[in-house]
């Protein structure tokens, strides 16, 4: 039996809905198990555009031993909420140090920069947040995969970001097939 990959996508009030939910949607379509995890102690978390989304669980209910990747969506307020959650930051640090996948897009790669994960890596983020990518070789590519660290630029690159996650966890062919299935041209 093939073991399915499992990821956690973290939500804090003010997250970018399209960024977070594109990852959830595309990964689930590819057979990757996804937990939507609230760090706000609320089962329903409102995004930057006031769209409420029901989470699968609260942070304290997440079993981090099961996850192959932790994903941080952007949105300025949502990113601040994620970075201010000490429990999440401890888990992200542990994943980084263990060489397990961590991924962030839009404003959220700034968290990786602040924590020193990007030194000597290629990375990208939302325009105007580049100064937070401390030590990185900053690019304007839609997605950067540098070892076990994945970064992306914003809402317009959410599909590229989700497909990069699929490519890393389920293989390039699975990502190609999904791009075709959703009529996405890179």
Question: What's the quick description here?
Answer:
This protein is an alpha/beta fold and 186 residues long. Helix content is 34%, strand content 22%.
Helix content percent band: 25-40%
Q: Sheet bearing the most strands, described? A: 7 strands, mixed
* Helix-strand topology string: EHEEEEEHHEHEEEEHH
What does the overall shape look like? globular
Query: How many E-type strands?
Result: 11
What name is given to the CATH topology of the domain at 6-106 and 153-181?
Answer: Rossmann fold
Radius of gyration: 15 Å
| Strand order of the biggest β-sheet | 5-2-1-6-7-11-10
Q: Calculate the terminal CA-CA distance, rounded to whole Å.
A: 32 Å
The CATH class of the domain at 6-106 and 153-181:
Alpha Beta
| Secondary structure category | alpha/beta
What percentage of amino acids are in beta strands? 15-25%
Helix count from the secondary structure assignment: 6
Mean pLDDT: 97
Low-confidence stretches: none
CATH architecture type of the domain at 6-106 and 153-181:
3-Layer(aba) Sandwich
CATH-defined superfamily of the domain at 6-106 and 153-181: Class I glutamine amidotransferase (GATase) domain
């Amino acid at each position: 039996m093939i073991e399915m990959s499992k990821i956690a996508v973290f939500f804090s009030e003010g997250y970018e809905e399209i960024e977070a939910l594109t990852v959830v949607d595309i990964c689930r379509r590819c057979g990757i198990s996804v937990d939507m995890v609230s760090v706000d102690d609320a089962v329903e978390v409102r995004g930057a555009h006031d769209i409420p989304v029901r989470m699968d669980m609260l942070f304290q209910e997440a079993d981090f031993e099961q996850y192959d990747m932790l994903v941080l969506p952007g949105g300025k307020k949502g990113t601040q909420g994620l970075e201010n959650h000490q429990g999440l930051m401890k888990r992200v640090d542990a994943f980084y140090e263990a060489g397990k996948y961590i991924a962030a897009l839009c404003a959220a790669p700034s968290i990786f920069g602040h924590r020193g994960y990007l030194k000597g890596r290629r990375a990208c983020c939302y325009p105007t947040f580049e100064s937070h990518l401390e030590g990185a070789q900053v690019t304007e590519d839609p997605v950067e995969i540098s070892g076990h660290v994945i970064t992306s630029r914003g809402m317009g690159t959410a599909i590229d970001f989700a497909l990069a996650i699929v490519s890393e966890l389920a293989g390039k062919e699975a990502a190609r097939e999904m791009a075709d299935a959703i009529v996405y041209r890179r």
